[in-house]
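Final report, Chapter 2: Outcomes

The project's central promise was a pipeline that accepts a single protein chain and returns its three-dimensional structure in a standardized token representation, suitable for archiving and comparison. That pipeline is now operational. To close this chapter, we reproduce one record exactly as it appears in the project archive, with the input sequence first and the structure output second.
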Amino acid sequence: ELDLCHNEDRTNSQIELKPAKNYNLLVSLPNDRKLLVKQERFNQKGETAGEFFGEWRIQELTRQFRELNSLRPWLPEMLHFDVDNSILVCNYLDNYCDLAHFYREEKVFPPEIASAIGSMLAQFHRLTLDRQDYLEIFSQTPQGASPRKVTNYSILNLARRLEKIKPEVFGEIPQDALRFYKLYQRYDSLGRAISELANAFEPCCLVHNDLKINNILLSLNWSQDFSTTSVEHSNQNVVRLIDWERCSWGDPALDLGKILASYLRIWLCSFMSNKNLSIEESLSLAEVPLTSIQPSIAALVTAYLTAFPEIWERRPDYLNQVLQWTGFGLIHSIHAMIQHQKFFGNLGICQLQVAKTLLCRPQASIPTIFGMQASQLIKTSKIART
């Protein structure tokens, strides 16, 4: 009925269930064409969380404004959205792989890939900056759908939960995991830093809100794509940003900080756990050393500032805020691990220590995270711009 395939395709098609939080079907059609059909799960009341509205909003925004067409190659190829049944149909991008899987399997971190991510992210932020007309369209709810409020202020909600622990938490998580709350509340400076970060939050453009390497697809031909003559065309074929379910109008530093946190977790999750070693010694013996990731982190931020110089002129302390959001992103991942896995061990302690340093001493953390001073990052981005 939607004309997404033909009746004669039925006999030669295959349908495969793809395990995920949603109900996902991979439909393989003749001529090597594949469709991904996703349906949100309904609760006992027959309702969904309405997360697919975010996917619909970003597609609708780029469809209505021609000047945003340049963003489409970085988005999923959405074909249909059924509001009543919460169903999305997209082209399945068979020539891409999960970036997290690529890093995990290959154990290499080419700066070119990170640079493409930085350029892509900068374009989403720059092209939507201070555009009230975009915000109005983006705030709309699809016809026939109930309004769903998407909040930017997860930082406020999480900060309140951490500061005021309710009695229920003692029955929800094991005793060992309570160490996180004890450590968090021991440092007054950490709570103050998060509060200041929340007060500095400036919603001014479109943000993905869940930016991590798991939500980035990498072209299987990425090395060939980089060898093309057009750098811009190359970048748009190398990476795609998926899972826009939580996208909203927010602070661009949040997106950039969260993707940096995702890179840092590659290093942190590979550390040596040994009771006889200090945290610093454990991190220095990580299977994936920080020095192997630094070039990618620096390349990502340099490419971002090169493509979006306006943000630096608008907010001279932007890099400090980005690193604070990086620290918050690490704390957010710790909290998620406790909530879902009911566990807080040495890995969590290491992450918390790094997060505290980033939140409370962002300026001093710049050389450690990027392997260079802020002035060098800015100089490199200016040279690339010219």
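Archive annotation: Strands lie at 14-18, 23-29, 33-39, 78-82, 87-91, 96-98, 205-207, 216-219, 239-241, 248-250.
This record, like all others produced under the grant, will remain available to the consortium after the project formally closes.
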